Task: inverse folding
């Protein structure tokens, strides 16, 4: 049968929007033929068995789960989320919570209601690469602010904001950051910096998007309060997700913000509502405390992964500098100046290991010599093999 979608190259009858002309999507599937150290996938043996809750959702809640639902999400789940975030010191009510299809969807919605083409968004350099692509689809411009061990350098940001203000330039509308176990660097923003960023948001009139998927995946050390819990004037939008505490395939996340932001985001949520079936399953697991048990199991497992990766990096890439995070999924590996991370990542693939060149995480000027490694997906023994292969790739680059 003839395929009705045959296209000629650059089919001239498609009048794509300018922003879509050169776009292509990146696959989110894990590379099963390689040692996968690039993407932030869940550890397969820690994926939950939700068959009981799914059965219950289908049988006892058929009308709710098989019907359209409110774009804001199921009221019971929104109440559960209010309780879940209260444990982190975030005080909010049901009206401040909207259920979305993952944190990325929350960011997309925030952009829809705040960003017009050419508006500036403040980000760390480097930052979460998928956030960069979402922001680019909204034609945002970037202000790239460096980080140190304490997070985004608020003093650098303040100087730039003050200079722009006195020059009468347009000021950024949003700041996007991942303050806990930052993707890709693993850095956790200090309490002082969190206060500073909130102060700047109030002074210069921007909104902070606090993307916090890794907060509960802490192996050791003291948690720092979320910015949302320090926010007394509604300048922070908090994004949460089930992806790292349960399963990314659930596609459940949430946005916490002042009611006027939530109301506008709901008006622009054009998905017909997040699947009520998945919402019901997640809410049963939250209410029954299985999520808490699941998080404890993930922490136990991933701590072993992190330790294995750090030890093997010290053994096989002793010249690299490694930031050891107290939680989350990622290690940021800074290579000697003469090593090009793209070349190293390319060679590593040939040796059977997939890594992620740090270059992709930069909004503007990329750094050429950093790699992001992810320890969440592979078994510890595979991590060991992968880092060993990476070390061989590094050695062969060195010997030319
Ligand atoms: N934000 C950051 C910083 C992430 O690293 C990830 C996972 N890669 C997410 C959000 C998860 O997004 P979602 O909830 O849409 O799965």
Result:
């Amino acid at each position: 049968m003839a395929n009705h979608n045959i296209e000629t190259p650059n089919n001239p009858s498609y009048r794509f929007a300018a922003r879509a002309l050169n776009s292509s999507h990146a696959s989110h599937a894990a590379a099963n033929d390689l040692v996968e150290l690039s993407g932030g996938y869940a550890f397969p043996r820690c994926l939950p068995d939700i068959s009981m809750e799914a059965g219950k959702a289908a049988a006892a809640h058929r009308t709710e789960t098989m019907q359209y639902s409110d774009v804001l999400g199921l009221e019971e789940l929104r109440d559960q989320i209010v309780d879940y975030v209260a444990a982190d010191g975030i005080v909010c009510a049901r009206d401040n919570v909207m259920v979305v299809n993952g944190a990325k969807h929350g960011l997309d919605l925030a952009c829809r209601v705040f960003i017009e083409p050419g508006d500036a968004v403040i980000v760390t350099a480097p930052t979460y690469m998928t956030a960069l692509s979402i922001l680019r689809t909204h034609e945002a411009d970037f202000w790239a602010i460096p980080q140190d061990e304490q997070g985004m350098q608020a003093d650098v940001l303040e100087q730039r904001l003050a200079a722009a203000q006195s020059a009468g330039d347009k000021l950024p509308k949003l700041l996007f950051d991942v303050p806990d176990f930052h993707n890709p660097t693993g850095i956790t923003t200090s309490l002082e910096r969190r206060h500073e960023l909130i102060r700047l948001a109030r002074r210069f009139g921007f909104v902070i998007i606090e993307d916090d998927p890794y907060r509960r995946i802490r192996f050791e050390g003291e948690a720092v309060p979320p910015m949302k819990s320090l926010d007394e004037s509604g300048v922070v939008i908090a994004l949460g997700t089930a992806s790292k505490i349960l399963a990314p395939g659930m596609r459940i996340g949430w946005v916490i913000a002042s009611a006027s932001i939530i109301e506008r985001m709901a008006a622009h949520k054009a998905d017909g509502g997040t699947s009520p079936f998945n919402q019901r399953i997640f809410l049963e697991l939250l209410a029954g405390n299985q999520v808490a048990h699941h998080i404890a199991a993930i922490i136990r497992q991933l701590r072993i992964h992190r330790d294995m990766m750090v030890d093997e990096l010290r053994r096989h890439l002793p010249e690299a500098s490694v930031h050891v995070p107290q939680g989350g999924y990622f290690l940021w590996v800074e290579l000697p100046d003469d090593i090009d991370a793209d070349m190293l990542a390319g060679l590593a693939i040939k040796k059977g290991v997939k890594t992620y060149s740090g270059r992709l995480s930069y909004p503007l000027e990329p750094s050429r010599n950093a790699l992001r490694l992810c320890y969440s997906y592979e078994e510890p023994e595979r991590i060991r093999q992968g880092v060993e292969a990476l070390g061989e790739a590094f050695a062969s680059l060195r010997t030319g």
User: Anything to note?
Assistant: The longest helix spans residues 290-316. The first strand starts at residue 35 and ends at 36. The chain has a mean pLDDT of 95. The two ends are 53 Å apart (CA to CA).
